[in-house]
From TrEMBL:
Signal peptide: 1-21
Protein name per UniProt: ABC transporter substrate-binding protein
One Pfam family cited in the UniProt record for this chain: SBP_bac_8
Binding, spermidine: 110, 196-199
PROSITE patterns reported for this sequence: PROKAR_LIPOPROTEIN
Lineage: superkingdom: Bacteria
Gene Ontology biological-process entries: polyamine transport
Stored PANTHER family: SPERMIDINE/PUTRESCINE-BINDING PERIPLASMIC PROTEIN, SPERMIDINE_PUTRESCINE-BINDING PERIPLASMIC PROTEIN
Localization, UniProt: Periplasm
Keyword Signal annotated: yes
GO cellular component terms listed in the entry, alphabetical order: periplasmic space
Main location as per UniProt: periplasm
The keyword Amino-acid biosynthesis is assigned to this record: no
Protein species of origin: Candidatus Chloroploca asiatica
Length: 383
């Protein structure tokens, strides 16, 4: 009889014990979570009993310093697994399908608008993100997420032209170097354009003196013709390893992001060495400014851990170590004095905007008409 009672209790209690223990690496399970009352938070405010063992981060390539992932694992016991994408459209397609397995993603500005409309993001609990205080207020509350309800700035940057000064000793001042049919034969097979349905038509729009967001059919017809005429001279559409190809001088010219150009110039950790001849310019006709943001997916079972990771990334020392490595611009004001002198000197040499450059930059936006860029890009790529 006593034995039967023991087995009955085991059958009833075991599933409950297993459920309580799931996803907690060690220690006791809190009776309530941070939105409730009692918690097991330590001095840093983090309740380690609520952390998952792993966090899945879907990020752009070459966009996080591996050392800070090691540091996060050492401090919190959470392993961050990073997978990569190279365009907002690939990211959106993946998460729209559902069950992506990712907790955290890094969409750009206009992609945050799309993700919000599709209701794919979890609302942020800003009480878990006290380090947001270090962010530049001018980069918060932007048009794509008023109030930062679902997104936190990660890095921002510019889109322009990277080039090798050995081959362009006079420098470059115009997008015509990439789009004027008379100039292209000299660089046949030695240059790339971003593989990006908004950025690449956007560069042509700037060349034509139009807004990067225009959907005027007559102007977009010109854009399409220019891109199709450029294709025979192009090495590739490349958003993934243009940094390496510029550094090795396989490419001498590229439509690319400021941080990719910076990586080509300085090298990237143990990945590859830099090339001191690489420069970056926003042409006189203008270019793009953008910001990538941290967003927790609504489907994430590890939202608490994702908040802890975001707050860690916002620590000024961590943000500086990260920005020094990736070469993009940190929105973390308190991190800027902690950046290396080399990076700050390159910012001053055109890899970051000054007042005059800012006036030539435009943000990419989404509205109900911008689907025409998907159609244009499909036609260009299909040619
Ligand atoms: N290699 C990291 C690249 C990050 C670029 N994100 C910017 C997208 C702008 N549309």
């Amino acid at each position: 009889m006593r034995q039967r009672f023991f087995w009955l209790m085991l059958v009833l209690v075991l599933p409950w014990l297993v459920a309580c223990g799931a996803g907690t690496p060690t220690g006791s399970v809190p009776t309530t979570d941070a939105s409730g009352g009692e918690s097991a938070a330590t001095d840093d405010g983090v309740d380690r009993t609520r952390l998952s063992r792993e966090l899945y981060f879907y990020n752009w390539s070459d966009y996080i310093n591996p050392e800070i992932l090691t540091q996060f694992e050492e401090e919190y016991g959470v392993r961050v697994i990073v997978d990569i994408f190279d365009s907002n459209e690939d990211l959106i397609a993946k998460i729209r399908a559902g069950n992506s397995g990712y907790d955290l993603i890094a969409p750009s500005d206009y992609a945050v608008q799309i993700i919000a409309l599709d209701d794919l993001a979890a609302p942020l609990d800003q009480t878990l993100l006290p380090n947001m205080q270090y962010l530049d207020p001018g980069l918060l509350n932007k048009y794509f997420d008023p109030g930062n309800v679902i997104s936190v700035p990660y890095m921002y940057g510019l889109t322009g032209i990277a080039y090798n000064r050995t081959f362009f000793p006079e420098g470059i001042t115009s997008w015509s170097v990439l789009f004027d049919p008379a100039q292209l034969p000299a660089f046949r097979g030695r240059f790339s354009m971003l593989d990006d349905e908004r950025e690449t038509p956007g560069a042509v729009l700037k060349y034509l003196g139009a807004s990067i967001n225009t959907t005027d059919p007559a102007i977009l017809q010109q854009v399409e013709t220019i891109l199709i005429d450029q294709k025979p001279f192009l090495a590739s559409y490349n958003s993934s390893d243009v940094n390496r190809r510029l550094a090795s001088e396989e490419f001498i010219l590229a439509h690319t992001w400021s941080g990719a150009a910076m990586q080509a110039r300085t090298g990237l950790g143990d990945e590859f060495s830099g090339n001191a001849n690489i420069a970056f310019v926003i042409p006189d006709e203008g270019g793009a400014i953008w910001m990538d943001n941290l967003v927790i997916l609504r489907e994430s079972p590890n939202a608490y851990t994702a908040h802890v990771f975001i707050n860690f990334l916002l620590r000024p020392d961590v943000a500086a170590t990260n920005a020094d490595y990736v070469g993009y611009l940190t929105p973390n004001e308190a991190a800027i004095p902690l950046l290396s002198q080399e990076v700050r000197d390159l910012y001053a040499a055109g890899f970051a905007p000054d007042e005059a450059m800012l006036e030539r930059l435009e943000w990419i936006e989404r509205d109900e008409d911008t689907v025409v860029f998907t159609e244009l890009w499909t036609r260009v790529k299909g040619q």
